[in-house]
Design brief:
Number of strands: 9
Helix content: 40-55%
Radius of gyration: 17 Å
Number of helices: 10
Strand order of the largest sheet: 3-2-1-4-5-6-7-8-9
Low-confidence stretches: none
Distance between the termini: 5 Å
Largest sheet: 9 strands, mixed
Strand content: 5-15%
Order of helices and strands: EHEHEEHEHEHHHEEEHHH
Protein backbone atom coordinates (compact mmCIF):
# COMPACT_ATOMS: atom_id res chain seq x y z
CA UNK A 1 0.00 0.00 0.00
CA UNK A 2 1.36 3.38 -1.04
CA UNK A 3 0.70 6.69 0.75
CA UNK A 4 -1.05 9.43 -1.22
CA UNK A 5 1.18 11.83 -3.10
CA UNK A 6 0.54 14.59 -0.56
CA UNK A 7 2.31 12.72 2.24
CA UNK A 8 4.95 10.65 0.43
CA UNK A 9 7.61 13.05 1.68
CA UNK A 10 6.66 12.15 5.26
CA UNK A 11 8.35 8.74 4.89
CA UNK A 12 11.91 9.60 3.87
CA UNK A 13 14.44 6.81 3.61
CA UNK A 14 16.16 6.17 6.91
CA UNK A 15 19.81 7.28 6.64
CA UNK A 16 22.49 4.60 6.93
CA UNK A 17 24.12 6.53 9.78
CA UNK A 18 20.93 6.60 11.90
CA UNK A 19 21.16 6.01 15.64
CA UNK A 20 18.54 5.90 18.39
CA UNK A 21 18.78 9.61 19.16
CA UNK A 22 18.75 10.79 15.55
CA UNK A 23 15.48 9.04 14.67
CA UNK A 24 13.54 10.58 17.54
CA UNK A 25 12.82 10.29 21.25
CA UNK A 26 9.25 10.22 22.54
CA UNK A 27 8.17 10.59 26.17
CA UNK A 28 4.73 9.30 27.12
CA UNK A 29 2.99 10.68 30.22
CA UNK A 30 -0.15 8.97 31.47
CA UNK A 31 -1.75 6.13 33.36
CA UNK A 32 -3.57 5.77 36.65
CA UNK A 33 -4.80 2.90 38.81
CA UNK A 34 -7.85 2.35 36.59
CA UNK A 35 -6.01 2.63 33.26
CA UNK A 36 -2.39 1.57 33.80
CA UNK A 37 -1.92 0.15 30.30
CA UNK A 38 -3.13 3.12 28.23
CA UNK A 39 0.26 4.90 28.14
CA UNK A 40 1.99 1.61 27.34
CA UNK A 41 -0.19 1.26 24.24
CA UNK A 42 0.83 4.80 23.25
CA UNK A 43 4.46 3.82 23.78
CA UNK A 44 3.89 0.75 21.62
CA UNK A 45 2.54 3.02 18.87
CA UNK A 46 5.56 5.29 19.17
CA UNK A 47 7.96 2.38 18.91
CA UNK A 48 6.13 0.89 15.91
CA UNK A 49 6.08 4.24 14.11
CA UNK A 50 9.84 4.54 14.39
CA UNK A 51 10.89 6.17 17.67
CA UNK A 52 14.46 5.32 18.60
CA UNK A 53 13.75 5.82 22.31
CA UNK A 54 10.48 5.63 24.23
CA UNK A 55 10.45 7.07 27.74
CA UNK A 56 7.42 6.25 29.89
CA UNK A 57 6.35 8.53 32.74
CA UNK A 58 3.79 6.24 34.33
CA UNK A 59 2.58 4.80 37.65
CA UNK A 60 4.25 1.65 38.92
CA UNK A 61 1.15 -0.32 37.92
CA UNK A 62 2.10 0.24 34.25
CA UNK A 63 5.48 -1.45 34.48
CA UNK A 64 4.28 -5.05 34.22
CA UNK A 65 2.51 -4.42 30.92
CA UNK A 66 5.43 -2.39 29.59
CA UNK A 67 7.91 -5.10 30.53
CA UNK A 68 5.99 -7.57 28.39
CA UNK A 69 5.09 -5.35 25.43
CA UNK A 70 7.72 -2.63 25.39
CA UNK A 71 10.98 -3.83 26.96
CA UNK A 72 12.91 -1.06 25.14
CA UNK A 73 11.23 1.68 27.20
CA UNK A 74 12.78 3.53 30.11
CA UNK A 75 10.74 4.63 33.15
CA UNK A 76 10.10 7.57 35.42
CA UNK A 77 7.42 7.36 38.11
CA UNK A 78 4.46 9.63 37.46
CA UNK A 79 3.83 12.45 39.94
CA UNK A 80 3.20 16.18 39.87
CA UNK A 81 6.85 16.71 40.74
CA UNK A 82 8.34 14.39 38.13
CA UNK A 83 10.79 16.03 35.77
CA UNK A 84 9.67 15.03 32.27
CA UNK A 85 12.58 13.23 30.56
CA UNK A 86 14.22 15.01 27.67
CA UNK A 87 12.46 14.10 24.44
CA UNK A 88 11.79 15.48 20.98
CA UNK A 89 8.02 15.07 21.54
CA UNK A 90 5.99 14.51 24.71
CA UNK A 91 2.67 12.64 24.40
CA UNK A 92 0.29 13.27 27.31
CA UNK A 93 -3.09 12.08 28.55
CA UNK A 94 -3.71 8.39 27.90
CA UNK A 95 -5.31 6.99 31.05
CA UNK A 96 -4.09 9.99 33.06
CA UNK A 97 -7.41 10.36 34.87
CA UNK A 98 -9.22 13.48 36.01
CA UNK A 99 -8.23 13.66 39.66
CA UNK A 100 -6.59 16.58 41.44
CA UNK A 101 -3.25 14.80 41.06
CA UNK A 102 -3.84 14.39 37.32
CA UNK A 103 -4.63 18.07 37.04
CA UNK A 104 -1.44 18.92 38.92
CA UNK A 105 0.58 16.75 36.51
CA UNK A 106 -1.04 18.46 33.53
CA UNK A 107 -0.47 21.94 34.95
CA UNK A 108 3.17 21.06 35.59
CA UNK A 109 3.56 20.06 31.95
CA UNK A 110 1.81 23.12 30.52
CA UNK A 111 3.87 25.42 32.70
CA UNK A 112 7.11 23.76 31.65
CA UNK A 113 9.29 24.35 28.62
CA UNK A 114 8.28 21.42 26.45
CA UNK A 115 8.30 22.56 22.83
CA UNK A 116 6.27 19.77 21.17
CA UNK A 117 3.20 18.27 22.85
CA UNK A 118 0.66 15.71 21.66
CA UNK A 119 -2.44 15.87 23.88
CA UNK A 120 -4.95 13.03 23.92
CA UNK A 121 -7.74 11.58 26.06
CA UNK A 122 -7.80 12.97 29.62
CA UNK A 123 -5.36 15.73 28.64
CA UNK A 124 -8.05 17.06 26.29
CA UNK A 125 -10.60 17.09 29.11
CA UNK A 126 -8.14 18.94 31.34
CA UNK A 127 -7.22 21.34 28.53
CA UNK A 128 -10.86 22.30 28.00
CA UNK A 129 -11.30 22.77 31.75
CA UNK A 130 -8.08 24.81 31.93
CA UNK A 131 -9.36 27.08 29.16
CA UNK A 132 -12.70 27.56 30.91
CA UNK A 133 -11.00 28.62 34.12
CA UNK A 134 -8.78 31.12 32.34
CA UNK A 135 -11.68 32.50 30.30
CA UNK A 136 -10.09 31.11 27.15
CA UNK A 137 -6.97 29.18 26.17
CA UNK A 138 -3.80 31.25 25.90
CA UNK A 139 -1.26 29.57 23.59
CA UNK A 140 2.45 29.58 24.29
CA UNK A 141 4.21 30.94 21.17
CA UNK A 142 7.26 28.79 22.02
CA UNK A 143 5.25 25.55 21.91
CA UNK A 144 3.63 23.47 19.16
CA UNK A 145 0.66 21.29 20.05
CA UNK A 146 -1.16 18.43 18.35
CA UNK A 147 -4.65 17.66 19.68
CA UNK A 148 -6.29 14.30 18.93
CA UNK A 149 -10.00 14.47 19.89
CA UNK A 150 -12.83 12.19 18.92
CA UNK A 151 -16.17 13.93 18.36
CA UNK A 152 -17.14 13.98 22.04
CA UNK A 153 -13.82 15.49 23.07
CA UNK A 154 -14.03 17.95 20.19
CA UNK A 155 -17.43 19.10 21.42
CA UNK A 156 -16.02 19.75 24.88
CA UNK A 157 -13.06 21.69 23.45
CA UNK A 158 -15.52 23.85 21.50
CA UNK A 159 -18.19 24.12 24.17
CA UNK A 160 -20.90 22.78 21.83
CA UNK A 161 -23.07 19.67 21.53
CA UNK A 162 -21.55 16.59 19.96
CA UNK A 163 -24.26 16.66 17.31
CA UNK A 164 -22.92 19.99 16.08
CA UNK A 165 -19.46 18.49 15.60
CA UNK A 166 -20.89 15.46 13.80
CA UNK A 167 -22.95 17.68 11.50
CA UNK A 168 -19.95 19.67 10.27
CA UNK A 169 -16.64 17.97 10.98
CA UNK A 170 -14.58 20.24 8.65
CA UNK A 171 -15.84 23.29 10.55
CA UNK A 172 -15.11 21.64 13.90
CA UNK A 173 -11.54 20.62 13.11
CA UNK A 174 -10.68 24.09 11.77
CA UNK A 175 -12.37 25.84 14.69
CA UNK A 176 -10.44 23.83 17.29
CA UNK A 177 -7.22 24.48 15.40
CA UNK A 178 -7.95 28.22 15.45
CA UNK A 179 -8.92 28.41 19.14
CA UNK A 180 -6.00 26.35 20.41
CA UNK A 181 -3.43 27.33 17.75
CA UNK A 182 -2.79 23.62 17.26
CA UNK A 183 -2.62 20.92 14.64
CA UNK A 184 -5.84 18.98 15.21
CA UNK A 185 -6.65 15.34 14.45
CA UNK A 186 -10.44 14.84 14.55
CA UNK A 187 -10.73 11.08 14.82
CA UNK A 188 -13.47 8.93 13.35
CA UNK A 189 -14.35 7.47 9.94
CA UNK A 190 -12.30 9.50 7.45
CA UNK A 191 -10.29 11.24 10.16
CA UNK A 192 -9.57 14.90 9.46
CA UNK A 193 -6.30 16.71 10.19
CA UNK A 194 -6.08 20.52 10.18
CA UNK A 195 -3.06 22.77 10.36
CA UNK A 196 -3.24 25.56 12.99
CA UNK A 197 -4.23 28.16 10.40
CA UNK A 198 -6.87 25.89 8.86
CA UNK A 199 -5.36 26.28 5.39
CA UNK A 200 -4.30 22.64 5.15
CA UNK A 201 -6.89 19.95 5.84
CA UNK A 202 -6.19 16.28 5.17
CA UNK A 203 -9.02 13.75 4.92
CA UNK A 204 -7.82 10.22 5.55
CA UNK A 205 -9.10 7.36 3.43
CA UNK A 206 -7.59 4.43 5.32
CA UNK A 207 -9.08 2.54 8.25
CA UNK A 208 -11.94 0.14 8.83
CA UNK A 209 -14.72 -0.72 11.32
CA UNK A 210 -12.50 -3.29 13.06
CA UNK A 211 -10.51 -0.39 14.50
CA UNK A 212 -13.42 0.27 16.90
CA UNK A 213 -11.39 -1.09 19.78
CA UNK A 214 -10.26 0.34 23.10
CA UNK A 215 -6.66 1.54 22.88
CA UNK A 216 -6.61 2.38 19.16
CA UNK A 217 -6.54 6.10 19.94
CA UNK A 218 -3.66 5.58 22.39
CA UNK A 219 -1.73 3.71 19.70
CA UNK A 220 -2.33 6.54 17.22
CA UNK A 221 -1.17 9.25 19.64
CA UNK A 222 2.10 7.43 20.16
CA UNK A 223 2.52 7.04 16.40
CA UNK A 224 1.96 10.77 15.89
CA UNK A 225 4.61 11.49 18.50
CA UNK A 226 7.10 9.21 16.76
CA UNK A 227 6.54 10.64 13.28
CA UNK A 228 6.85 14.16 14.65
CA UNK A 229 10.04 13.27 16.52
CA UNK A 230 11.47 11.89 13.27
CA UNK A 231 10.34 14.70 10.95
CA UNK A 232 11.05 17.36 13.64
CA UNK A 233 9.55 20.51 12.19
CA UNK A 234 6.25 19.75 10.50
CA UNK A 235 3.50 18.75 12.93
CA UNK A 236 0.89 18.61 10.16
CA UNK A 237 2.97 16.19 8.06
CA UNK A 238 3.66 14.09 11.14
CA UNK A 239 -0.01 13.90 12.09
CA UNK A 240 -1.27 13.14 8.58
CA UNK A 241 1.37 10.48 7.97
CA UNK A 242 0.66 8.80 11.31
CA UNK A 243 -3.10 8.80 10.71
CA UNK A 244 -2.65 7.29 7.26
CA UNK A 245 -0.08 4.73 8.49
CA UNK A 246 -2.29 3.67 11.41
CA UNK A 247 -5.30 3.06 9.16
CA UNK A 248 -3.35 1.51 6.30
CA UNK A 249 -1.61 -0.97 8.59
CA UNK A 250 -4.97 -2.02 10.03
CA UNK A 251 -6.44 -2.36 6.53
CA UNK A 252 -3.60 -4.67 5.48
CA UNK A 253 -4.02 -6.74 8.61
CA UNK A 254 -7.79 -7.10 8.20
CA UNK A 255 -7.54 -7.88 4.49
CA UNK A 256 -5.16 -10.75 5.30
CA UNK A 257 -7.65 -12.15 7.79
CA UNK A 258 -5.59 -11.16 10.82
CA UNK A 259 -6.92 -10.22 14.24
CA UNK A 260 -6.75 -6.39 14.53
CA UNK A 261 -5.76 -6.36 18.21
CA UNK A 262 -3.67 -3.51 19.57
CA UNK A 263 -0.52 -5.65 19.61
CA UNK A 264 -1.10 -6.97 16.08
CA UNK A 265 -1.92 -3.51 14.73
CA UNK A 266 1.27 -2.12 16.27
CA UNK A 267 3.25 -4.88 14.57
CA UNK A 268 1.55 -4.08 11.25
CA UNK A 269 2.37 -0.38 11.67
CA UNK A 270 6.00 -1.27 12.22
CA UNK A 271 6.17 -3.55 9.18
CA UNK A 272 4.52 -1.04 6.85
CA UNK A 273 6.64 1.84 8.14
CA UNK A 274 9.87 -0.09 7.59
CA UNK A 275 8.87 -0.93 4.01
CA UNK A 276 8.12 2.72 3.31
CA UNK A 277 11.36 3.93 4.85
CA UNK A 278 13.28 1.43 2.74
CA UNK A 279 11.61 2.86 -0.34
CA UNK A 280 9.67 -0.28 -1.11
CA UNK A 281 6.10 -0.80 -2.17
CA UNK A 282 4.02 -2.20 0.66
Amino acid sequence: MKPPQSIKCAFPARPAESHKYSVGTVAVVGGCASYPNAPVMAGLGARAAGAGLVRLVVPDASRCCAGALLPEATFAELSARTAIPKADVVVVGMGLGRSEESEAVFAHILQGRIERLVLDADALFLLAEWGERLGGFVPDPEREIVLTPHEGEAARLLGVDRSQVAADRPWAVRKIADIYHATVVLKGPRTLVSSPDGERVFENDTGNPFMALGGMGDLLSGAIGARWAYLRDDAFAAATSAVWLHGAASDMLVESGGDPSIVNTAAAIGSLRVRLERGGNA
